C-alpha cells in the first residue's frame, strides 16, 4: 500500500515549517522516497504532481537526477498538463552534458509539428533554453518551417529559437538568413523584435551577412522612425516611450551595420540625431533608449557634431539624480576617453565631482576616468582633487589612486619641485599602498635635482620629525638626511620657511627611527647608513655616532649587525678613507644604463657609499651588500680577442691610462697637417668621435681636399660631411670633419686614412695607417 | 542574458533560469557567490556591478532580489526595464504579488517568464499578449485535467 504523499502546497508548507536544516532534510528525504516509489509504480495521472514536488526540492539544492526519465515520459504524454511540467523539468534537470537529453529530441520534433500553438510553444521554448548542438542540427528544418506558420505566437518563438540555434551551430546561418527579409516586414512587435535579434546575431558572425543586411538599413531606419514619431500605442509603451525594447534592439543592429561603413552611417545620421534630441528622459525607459543611441553614434562613422552631441548627453547623464544613469555615463565616457579626448575633457569638472560618490562602484569609475583625463594643462588642479580623494577614499581604491597619481605626476609634472612634493604627499597619505619602486623613484628624482637638495632635505626632515611610522616616507627621508644633512644646519633655503636644526636633533631623530619598533628592517638599515654618512658631515665630533654604531655591532638583526661591524671598521682602521667613501653621491642621470644601476642600488634597501679608493675597501663594500659600490671607473678590462682585420698591421696594446684622450698628429706634408682629436661620450661607451682637423701653414691653398677612412669589419664608421674642401694657406681656417665610429665589441681600433687634394698645382694622394692610436679610443 | 536568479533576503533561491549550459556544481557555486555579493550591497548603491567577466543588474522588490547576468555589449538600463516588466507581469497574474506567491506557485513563475523571454531574449513586448498566452495555457491545462 502506498502511503499517501503530500500535495505540493503541503510539502512546501512542511519544508518552510522545519526549524532546522536537519528537519528540512528529513522531510525532503521522506517525500523523495515517495516520489521515487510513485515514479516506479504510481498513477501516471499524478506523475506531474510528483515531478513538480521534485522540482521544488531541486531548487532548494537537493539532488533530483532520478526525475530525468520522468520528464521524458511526461513530455511524451498527450496531456497538456503533463507536457507543461515535463518540459519545465527538462529545462531544469536536463542539459547538454547528460546523454539523456538527446532523448527528448524526438518529442520536441513531434510537438513542433502538431498543430496546437501552446504545445509548439513549449517545445520551442525548451529547445531554445537547453538545446545542444546536436539537437539544433536535427531540428533546424522543423524550426525553419515554423517561421512560416500562420500563428504569430509560434512564429515569434521560432525566430528566437533560430537565434539560439545559430549560437550553437553557426553553420545554420545559411538556413535562417533568407527568411529575414520577409520577417522584417511583419507588424507584430514580438516577431519584429525577434527578427532584429536574429539579424544582429547573423551579422555578428559573418561578414557576408553583414554586407547583405546593410541593404536593409533604410528599412530599419523607417521602422524606428515610425516607432518614435507616431503616437504611442498603449500596448507597447513604457512611460510614453513606444516599445523601448524594440527601439534599443534596432539601435544595436544599426550600430553593427553602420560601423566602419560611411554609406550606412550617413543613412542613419538624421534619425539618430532625432532620437537623441527628442527622447523623453524623465524615466528610465527613455534613458535606456538614449543610452543605446549614444553608443551607436559613437561607434559608427557619424558627423562630428553628432558625436559632440552624444558626449554631451553623457555629460548630462553624469548630473542625473539616478545613480544608475551616472554609472552608465561614467562607464561609457571611460570607453570614449581615448578616441574623443577633448569632448570628454569638457566634462572633467563633473567627473571630478563624482569622486565624492558614496557608492564605491561609481567612485571607482570616476577615479579611472579622472586619471585618464589628466593632461599637462590641468595636472595641478587634478592632482589637488585626486589627493583630496586619496585622503578620504575607501581602502580598496587607495592603491589604484596612489599609483595613478604617481604615474600621472611622472608624465605631466610641471617642474621637479612639484613632482617631489606630490610624491612626498602621496607617500605620507598612502605610504603602505604604493608600489615598491616608488621609494626608489623618489630617491632618484631628489638625487637628480641638485638645486632642490636643500629644499628636499628640509621638507623631509619636517615630515620625519612629525611622523616616523610611514615607512616609505621614512626611508626616503633618512636617505636624504644622510646624503644632504649638512644642508640642514648650514645655509638657508629660500624655498621653505627658515628651519633651525641642531645637529643633535637630527641625530636624535635618526636614532629614534633606528630604535622604533614601527620601523621595518630595511628602514633601520637606511637609518644606520644615514647616521654613518653624517659622521663626515657633522661640524662637531662623531662620538655619538660611534657609540650607536658600536652598539649595533651586537644587534640581533644580522643585516644591521653586519653594517655596524663594517662601519666600526671604517671608524677604527680606515678612518683616513671614511670621508671619501661617504662622499655625496654624484648626480644621477636617469637616462644612462649605468645611472639606472646606480639608482637601483640607491633605491634598494642598501644604499652603498661611493668611491672605493683601495682594493681593501672594495672587499669591505662587497661584504656589505654584494654590489660593489659606485666605482667611478670600471676596473681595467682585458683586450678582446683579435678580429680578422683587413690589411692592417699588428700593434701592441698600451696599458690603460686614465686621462682625457690626447690629440694625435697623423700626417704632415709641405705645411699641411692633419690632427685627430678623440672623444668618448660617457653615455655610449661603444661610440668614438674623431674630429679630423686639417691646417695649412704653407703659402699655397690646399683645394679639393677629400678625406676617407677605413676601419676593421667589426666597427661601424660614419663620416659626417666636412666643413669644406679647401684648407686656406697661411694658417687660415682649418677644415674639420667628424668621424663616428661604433665599436660594440671593444676591439682594438685600427684606422686607415686616404687623403686626396691639390696643393701647389699638384694632385696628391696619400694612404696611410694611423699609428699610435691611444688605447682609450677603444677600451 | 546569461541567467536570471530570484532570491530572498536570506539568500534562499526562489527561481533560477539558466540560458547557458553549466554543470549543477558550477550553477550552485555561481549562485552562492553572486547571492553573497548582491546581499552585501548597501541599499543606496547602484543596481549595476561587475562580477567575474559579466555585468550584473539587480533590483530589489519587497523581500525578493531579481538578479540578471548580461553580457558586455548589453544595455544595463533596458535590463532594468526587463526586470520591471517581469515583476509587472507577475503582479498582474497573481494580483498584487508577494514572495509567498512565487514560493507556492513557482511553476507559474517559470511559465510566465517563458512567455516573456526566450533563449535569454525578449520575445513579447506587449503585456497583454503575454498574459493572454498564460491564460490560454492555464485553460488548456484545466481542460485536460478535467477530462483526466
TrEMBL record, chain A:
Identify the residues that the record assigns to the GAE domain, covering every copy. Answer: 659-774
> What name has this protein been given in UniProt?
AP-1 complex subunit gamma
Q: Which GO terms describe its biological process?
A: intracellular protein transport; vesicle-mediated transport
Note the InterPro entries from the entry. Adaptor_Complx_Large_Subunit, AP1_complex_gsu, ARM-like, ARM-type_fold, Clathrin/coatomer_adapt-like_N, Clathrin_a/b/g-adaptin_app_Ig, Clathrin_app_Ig-like_sf, GAE_dom
Organism expressing this protein natively: Erinaceus europaeus (Western European hedgehog)
Gene Ontology CC = AP-1 adaptor complex
Pfam short name (any one): Alpha_adaptinC2
Where does it reside? Cytoplasmic vesicle membrane; Endomembrane system; Golgi apparatus
Task: Report how it sits in the membrane.
Answer: Peripheral membrane protein
Q: Which family does it belong to?
A: Belongs to the adaptor complexes large subunit family.
Q: What is the lineage of its organism?
A: Eukaryota, Metazoa, Chordata, Craniata, Vertebrata
Keyword check for Protein transport: yes
Q: Which PANTHER family does this chain map to?
A: ADAPTIN, ALPHA/GAMMA/EPSILON
Q: Where is this region: Disordered?
A: 589-612
Instruction: Tell me if Oxidoreductase is a UniProt keyword of this record.
Output: no
- Encoding gene, per UniProt annotation: AP1G2
- Key words, A-Z: Cytoplasmic vesicle, Golgi apparatus, Membrane, Protein transport, Transport
TrEMBL record, chain B:
Q: What is this protein for, i.e. what is its function?
A: Subunit of clathrin-associated adaptor protein complex 1 that plays a role in protein sorting in the late-Golgi/trans-Golgi network (TGN) and/or endosomes. The AP complexes mediate both the recruitment of clathrin to membranes and the recognition of sorting signals within the cytosolic tails of transmembrane cargo molecules.
Assembly, in brief, is: Adaptor protein complex 1 (AP-1) is a heterotetramer composed of two large adaptins (gamma-type subunit AP1G1 and beta-type subunit AP1B1), a medium adaptin (mu-type subunit AP1M1 or AP1M2) and a small adaptin (sigma-type subunit AP1S1 or AP1S2 or AP1S3). Binds to MUC1.
Q: What is its main location?
A: membrane
| CDD domains the record matches | AP1_sigma
Q: What is this protein called?
A: AP complex subunit sigma
- GO BP annotation list: intracellular protein transport
State which gene encodes it: AP1S2
Tell me its family: Belongs to the adaptor complexes small subunit family.
Keywords, alphabetical:
Coated pit, Cytoplasmic vesicle, Golgi apparatus, Membrane, Protein transport, Transport
This protein's species is Erinaceus europaeus
Superkingdom is Eukaryota
Q: How does it sit in the membrane?
A: Peripheral membrane protein
Q: Which GO terms describe its molecular function?
A: clathrin adaptor activity
User: Where's the AP complex mu/sigma subunit domain?
Assistant: 1-140
Listed GO CC annotations: AP-1 adaptor complex; clathrin-coated pit
